[in-house]
Amino acid sequence: KVDMRDMLDTLMVEAEGLSQGRHVIRMDPVTPLWLWGNAAELHSAFGNLVSNAVRYTPEGGTITLSWREEGDKLVFSVSDTGIGIPREHIPRLTERFYRVDRGRSRGNGGTGLGLAIVKHIVARHQARLDIVSEPEKGSTFSVVFGGEHRAEPDHDPRAEEAA
Ligand code: ATP
Ligand code: MG
C-alpha cells in the first residue's frame, strides 16, 4: 500500500535534485489518496517519468507533477514544457532501446530503457500509460489506475485508544 502524498513529496525532492534549479517544478494540490501497489516499483516508474521530463525539457521550462481522481480512476501524471515527441514516434516509445532522435539528445545519453520499465510496471498494476505530446510544446505522461486500486489509510491505533 502506497501513501501517494509521501510518494509525491519524494518525487519532488528528486526532481529538484535532477533539475539543479534549471526548471520550475510544481506539484498540483494533492488529495491524500492511498493506492494498492508495490511502492518500490511505482517509485521506479514515476521516477523514470520525472527524470525524462527533466532531461527533455530545456532550461527555464516547467515540470508539473499531479495526483488526482478522475471519475472512478486514479491518475498520476508528469507534464513538461519540453521538446515534445513527434506523433509517429509515440506508439514505439515503450520499446526497449527506442529513442526518438539520438542526435537531438546526444550528450544526455539515455539508453532507451526507462519507458520499457515503466510499461512493465504499469502492466503489473493493471494500469494504463497515456502519452500526449506536441513537438516544441511539451509532453504529458499519465499512469491511470482503476478504482479498485484505491486504498484506505491504516487506522492509527493511538487515535483508537484515545477515542
Ligand atoms: P533511459 O531512460 O534508459 O535513461 P531514455 O530516456 O532515452 O533512456 P526512455 O525513458 O525509454 O529512454 O524514453 C525513450 C525516448 O522517448 C527518449 O529517448 C526520448 O526520445 C523520448 N522521451 C521520453 N520522455 C520524453 C519527454 N518527457 N519529452 C520528450 N521526449 C521524451
Ligand atoms: Mg528515460
From TrEMBL:
<protein>
    <recommendedName>
        <fullName>Phosphate regulon sensor protein PhoR</fullName>
    </recommendedName>
</protein>
<feature type="domain" description="Histidine kinase">
    <location>
        <begin position="1"/>
        <end position="149"/>
    </location>
</feature>
<comment type="function">
    <text>Member of the two-component regulatory system PhoR/PhoB involved in the phosphate regulon genes expression. PhoR may function as a membrane-associated protein kinase that phosphorylates PhoB in response to environmental signals.</text>
</comment>
